[in-house]
## 1
Amino acid sequence: MSISTIPFRKTKSYSPLIAVLLLAMIQTSCRNNAVNPPEPYGACPTEQQVEWQRMEMNMFCHFGPNTFTDKEWGDGTEAESLFNPSALDCRQWVDVALNAGMKGIILTAKHHDGFCLWPSSQSSHTVAQSPWRDGQGDILKELQDACTGKIKMGVYISPWDRNHPAYGTDAYNTVFASTLYEVHRNYGPLFEQWFDGANGEGPKGKRQDYDWQLFNSTVLTINPQAVIFSDVGPGCRWVGNEDGSAGETCWSTLNADGHTPGAGSPGTDRLNEGDKRGTYWIPAETDVSIRKGWFWHAEEHPKSVEELLDIYYKSVGRNSLLLLNVPPDNRGLISAEDSLRLTELRKVLDNIFGNDLAKDAKVSASNVRGGKHNRTFSADNVIDTNYDSYWSVDDSVTSPTLTLKFKHSTTFNRILLQEYIPLGQRVATFHVEYLNDDGKWETLTQATTIGYKRILLVPKTTTRGLKIVIDEALACPTINRVGLFIDHLSTTEN
Ligand code: FUL
């Protein structure tokens, strides 16, 4: 029966067919209002890479024979008898890291001198040959026990080995792959595998032709969760310097094809800034030491809290993860001065970022995906604390404006912005305006990329309103956070 043939009845009850039709119409109209999220743009992170980036700050620990010989690079001839920390306690390392708010620890399980901090079956230059714990010790096991349930653990394992007799021959690639297998098999889950691209001579004066494909696939076969660091990833990339500074422009994408870690890597400028529209998601990791050297030296001391805060702004604040090296001393403990400095840093960061001055702002936007009444992508998603809610706009809109209005005059000197990176990195340039005393919009600062997190250092500004104007985006922007903060300690501006 067609609709036109349904007899019209003058009764108060509706026919079941009309009820069904009405329901179908309501459902269709609801579906029209439900707007799909933007399609992912370009190279996007894996779930592990998003989780990794959200860790923000991890601790690097350089520890080994160099800790006892006052060197930065051992030559592999150091006697195992030198390695004998008097009070090693990995639980203390974990406590220091947790107090500083770090989410992971990466230990140099093997540095260039080849000494293994675990009793490796692939080497005769290990803790098993040392007097420490009568040759029965295993630092990876102790660290694993200390980390479990508290903090994530990762490893640095140097392919360059100045001790191993097979180094410089084809056989060494298999030895090194077996070493990786052993570590990931026995001490996992490991969140990050750190590969140093250094490639120098071994004990026989020969260089190694590294089989990176074998190394990466060995790690990922046993531990698909691992984020692999090297100059060119695949999980994350070197930031191109050891000063603690990511590029002001910092793309998490890189055209890595044709490159290898070490001599074959892209130039340091490209590593520092990444590639706009790069073909792979390989975000920058900023590794830097709290002291001058990577290993502990009695005469060196930690950087000031001001210097560390500056590093934080230039790494985490520029779309990079900060891997801060804190070297255990020759007792096998992190020194009191380093630990104290990290506590100070944490206090400063909590003071600054513990109070978001934008949290009660009235937020509006020039465009909201699906229409201005669409709650899913509404402008005020940028001030909630839900990571997965974000403001977005219609697909065709790539230069929208977000406006924040404050009930009272608000004073800040730090602006924090975050893009919702599971959908890719999109914003290429933007500027910020504020409402001046004459009630006019005036430019406060301009910048390029945002990415996972961007912190803009601006002069102390008091205002009733702020505008984020996106000037260029590669696809419709997805912004999940805007925050305003005041930093009284460092008044540095970009
Ligand atoms: C470099 C190494 O040569 C240094 O000794 C240190 O381990 C640093 C993190 O990476 O390439």
## 2
Amino acid sequence: MVPEAPTPEPEPRGPQLPDPALRDPALPDPALVVLVGASGSGKSTWAASRFRAAEVVSSDTLRGLVGSGPHDLDASTDAFALLEHIVQARLGRTLTTVVDTLGSDAARRRRWLDLARRAGLPAVVVVLDTPASVCRSRNAARERAVPARVLTSQLASVTGTVAALADEGWDAVHHVRPAADATPPPAPARTSPPAPPRAESTPWADAPAPRGLRGVVLQLSRFPADDDLLPWVTRMAGAAEAAGLAGLALMDHLVQIPQVGRAWDPIPEPWVTLGALAAVTTRLQLGTLVTPVTFRAPGITAKAAATLSALSGGRCFVGVGAGWWDREHAAYGLGFPGARERLDALEAGIETMRALWAPGTKPYAGRLVSLPETTCYPRPVGSMPVLVGGSGERTLRIAATLGDGCNVPSGEGGLARLDRYLELVREHGRDPGEVHATVLDLPVVGRDRDDAWARVERHRGRTPAAAFAARHHAGTPAEHRERLARLVGRGVTTAFVAPVGLATPEDVLALAPLATAFG
Ligand code: CTP
Ligand code: MG
């Protein structure tokens, strides 16, 4: 692979941030990242600015552990033995590993690359292309400077290494010229959730028009176990509005599901809870993801949703599905017929709801359902999007023919089903631009890389950390924004986001960068 040519430095015009592409090449993650650069080129500084301390394996640090300090050259043999051991152990667990040495030993590079290949990890080199004069002056300013002739020979060996890299088989060779000032830009100020409006009058009367379901919708699935449910959901919804999210969705389950918590963890009835949220929000779309058709007669769901729409000024959507968890049905005395019958009921249920929401009170005689009258007041305000959850072929067909959208998992398997959904939409002569192609996304969101990995450790249970991090795309809000923005190219209009371990309004505010992922 041909190394990228280093970009010439811009004319200095007062204090400037470096070109972000130079400062921050897009790197695969997890990956092996091998640094190359002379002393003082800024390898350790660069690594510390974008990786967790545990991800960086530094020969200097290891000299400090097994010797008298980072510059104890007598400890080199022991330090490098440890370094090889750590690199092998981390790559074997498919954990990101940044090797911080001069990078000039070809045999070592070959070994690390082999280890990465065996682990199935991408492997890249980052060359710190700092001008020799800068390395020299930084070196001179150090408490324990490298002798000048040693630095000169290092600089020459880096040049030789860079030439050799092209034929070694790395996935990429990036050249980085770090900023003189490596201080990260200040974090954007956090806003606190606003005080909730009080429903003495219609609270959204003066609010900007809601933007519909396009964007990121927060899904709440886990609730605090004490008695502060209303203040908690109010604060979470207020934070979702402050973060600019498009909506808030609640799961519809009678017993907390094992994927989220324990059976005795609270899971409030969603339509009642959404009614409370209608009174304390002004812009969020509110709905379920998803209501099983087996829980309530569809007419009753239609009634609840029409009422929520009236209470919220037309901010209601309805997620529906065929239901899947036999245990909660049995526990609440509900029937749980076979899959075919449940899907029949789903089809008929959507038809019933639409008939009841349509203008007037006239009798309805449809394909699957007949009703002697369709008297449903209050009437819903504006549109009432029906999203069908599930990715089976018949479910997608129902979504494409009777629904206004689908909801599938955000992983590659789910996206393949979304492709199929959009194909069915077209087959049925509908405009893909008018449907909601939605995904359910369960990210681990951390303030920074350290926080993201602390959350992985907290929630991974017995799943290996690397697998858990990959499954949940552990990363910062900016990284999640980029990932979601890429889904637009797959036709996704909306992501229902249920962050792993979401617990506080601050966790919700941290999602603000995601709000614009869909434009
Ligand atoms: N430095 C700086 N601005 C940068 C990068 C580094 O002022 N953009 C300073 C660091 O604070 C440090 C010196 O330059 O005092 C060397 O940086 P370092 O990251 O330690 O360089 P390394 O390449 O890791 O040097 P060595 O091989 O000696 O570990
Ligand atoms: Mg260093």
## 3
Amino acid sequence: MPRPMIVGNWKMNNSLEQALQLVASLKDSLTPNPNAEIVVCPAFPFVIEVSRVLENSSIKIGAQNMHSAQSGAFTGEVSGSMLAGLCEYVILGHSERRSLFGETNRFINIKVVSALDNGLKPILCVGETEQERDSGNASTVVRTQVKSGLADVADITSVTIAYEPIWAIGTGKIPSQEAVHEIISHGIFEVLQEIYPDSYNIPRILYGGSVTPQNVVNFTADPLIDGVLVGGASLDYNLFSQIVALTLEAKAN
Ligand code: PGA
């Protein structure tokens, strides 16, 4: 599995026309790179149309969420079995899902298991609030989210973990390189080594939160970080393609 990875999380943005234009431009301009994974995550109704545009392209598609059940009376929800075959990745446990829709570590864990059962590759999001950071608890919070999110997951080969400090998402504020390194090593890397002592395949680790072309290298220069999860800047073709190019350059060194 190639390590460098750049994921665009479009959230509830883009009309169908804008979505198709954006992926058509990305498809035309990004040189296929077998050593990297580029993923766009449109809203559910656009997944099929976007995947048609991306046929024969190396750009992959992800969903922004899914329900843990296979089917049933869950009005408004989408299951992993419905997404299987339409997209390769699924973002789970995004802080907006946790804070606005009350998703718990336990619920997110069941979704991770269900995603894997359905052949989808989960991108598990973790991260602390500003208050948790200020009280010195960031690594502990992230540790718990990683441990709980991966409970009952035996094979982590196709899991990606995105560290996104909640206070950095959509705010233009970013943590220092040192702080990110510290939290990723203690809150993520050490935990993975503890729970999977025999695994040769440590999941890819991404940074997310106000990533722009100006700051992306602050994060991707860290050898523990394989790439970025980009929100706002992924809606803009110029910004996103610059972030892709800068990440690949940083990771090639
Ligand atoms: P942002 O969002 O880049 O707009 O801060 C990141 C995310 O929510 O994944």
